[in-house]
Amino acid sequence: MKDKVEKAISKIRPMLAADGGSVELVKVDEAKGIVTVRLTGACGSCPYSTMTLKNVVERMIREEVPEVKEVAVG
């Protein structure tokens, strides 16, 4: 599952990089289906980071890896 999540994140990074940010994988809890990520760069301090996490990062990871139930910030 971790490899699938990494692949999904690699597709997200260019979009975030366009705004000066990025996303890092912190951990994957396969038993619970929870992926923990860290938004970095401009995305880490942006007031819209929660929206970016839920509307972009979580949506795209869950589309690529249906086993993921939630994406959290760590």
Rg, rounded, reads: 11 Å
The rough form would be described as globular
For CATH, the homologous superfamily is named as: Fe-S cluster assembly (FSCA)
Category by helix and strand content = alpha+beta
What strand order characterises the main sheet?
A: 1-2-3
Beta-strand portion reads 25-35%
- Can you give the helix content as a percent range? 40-55%
**Helix count?**
3
CATH topology value: GMP Synthetase, Chain A, domain 3
> How many independent structural domains?
1
Average pLDDT level: 94
Q: What summary fits the major beta sheet?
A: 3 strands, mixed
SSE sequence, one letter per element: HEEHHE
**Stretches with pLDDT under 50, minimum 5 residues:** none
Number of strands: 3
What oligomeric state is this?
Answer: single chain
Q: How far is the N terminus from the C terminus?
A: 18 Å
Name given to the CATH architecture: 2-Layer Sandwich
Q: Class in CATH? A: Alpha Beta
Structural summary, described in words:
It contains 3 helices and 3 strands; from the N terminus they run H-E-E-H-H-E. The protein is α+β, with helices and mostly antiparallel strands. It has a 3-stranded mixed beta sheet. A hairpin with a 4-residue loop joins strand 1 and strand 2. The two termini are 18 Å apart.
